[in-house]
Amino acid sequence: PDPATTPAAGAITRVATLKLENGATALTLAYDSVTGELYLAPTREMEGDTRIPHLWLVLPNEGGVQLVGAIDGHDTSRHSLEGVIVGQATEAIAVAVSMEEPGHTPDPGHPDGPVVAQGEFQAL
Q1: Cα–Cα 20 to 30 A to 69, which of 11, 50, 85, 86?
Q2: Sign of torsion, CA 15 18 23 25?
Q3: 18 exposure class (CB count in 10 Å sphere: 0-12, 13-18, 19+)
Q4: DSSP label at 42?
Q5: What local confidence, expressed as pLDDT, does residue 51 receive?
Q6: Distance between CA atoms of residues 56 and 38, nearest Å
Q7: pLDDT tens digit string along 24-74?
Q8: Residue 74: Cβ within 10 Å count
Q9: Which residue, among 2, 1, 49, 46, has the nearest Cα to 20 in the 3D structure?
Q10: 14 close to 30: Cβ distance less than 8 angstroms
């Protein structure tokens, strides 16, 4: 495994498996609330789509959603969250992926494209 994309042992505090409407797993996500590192491992389910996957945090208590940003829908990746979004990621109850048109960044408070996968956070 590549050390740049492999989480350190014991640092991960939350995980989520994002599933498509048909029940297939699209992405597995692990979050380290201490460092703000987000690790993403997509399956092949989103391959072939020309749109760009964007990751969203689903906030508790009618808090809406918060855009994390565009993600790689094909390869394992790591994202460093900063600022207020670190707290939101720690509080989020779920995560979701929308498919957005190339070159388009949606408003941080709501996806413009369809939400194709979602999953609840599980604490470790």
Answers
A1: 11
A2: negative
A3: buried
A4: E
A5: 96
A6: 12
A7: 999 999 999 888 999 999 999 988 899 999 999 999 999 999 999 999 999
A8: 13
A9: 46
A10: yes
CA 33/CA 57 separation, integer angstroms: 14
Q: What are the helix and strand counts (H, E) for the chain?
A: 1, 8
User: Rounded to 5 degrees, what are φ and ψ at 12?
Assistant: -75, 130
CA distance 113 to 124: 31
| Gap between the Cα atoms of 74 and 7, Å rounded | 18
**Which residues share a beta bridge with 40?**
29, 77
Q: Which pair of tokens denotes residue 92?
A: 């989020």
The dihedrals phi and psi of 87, each to the nearest 5 degrees, come to -65, -40
